[in-house]
Request: fold
Amino acid sequence: MEFITNSPVRTEALGEALARHLKAGTVIAYRGDLGAGKTAFTRGLARGLGVTEIVTSPTYTIVNEYLGGRLPLFHFDMYRLGSADELFDIGWEDYLDRGGVCAVEWSENVEEAMENPIIITIYRLDEDTRRIVIEGGAELADLSL
Reply:
């Protein structure tokens, strides 16, 4: 599936719509350059899951946890990690076992640790316009956003 959004608000709305279809244990693997809109998409995911907390980038904390929604949301930033081994060292399997949604920025750094993720690639077309490609994930087979 491919979408064009023309503002961060529209990118968030797409994330919100997708979140309504997610199940416990879903892993989302983001791809996209710095500033592409991965955190904006995650803000929408959080809203769609019923999270009311402010969503921020986990760049310096590696993972932010949002527990107040219909499913927990674990928002990872793997920019500073060099391998999947480092991801397992911070408890990746524990997060998977907690029955939430794991949204992983810079997923290409830990690609071998993810099984059957939903891959969301965000391309920056200009200051506000994004092309968002969503692939994979069994729960998306009948999805129409």
Summary: The chain has a mean pLDDT of 87. The chain has one domain: 2-138. The CA atoms of residues 64 and 74 lie 6 Å apart. Strands lie at 2-5, 27-31, 63-66, 73-77, 101-105, 118-124, 130-135.
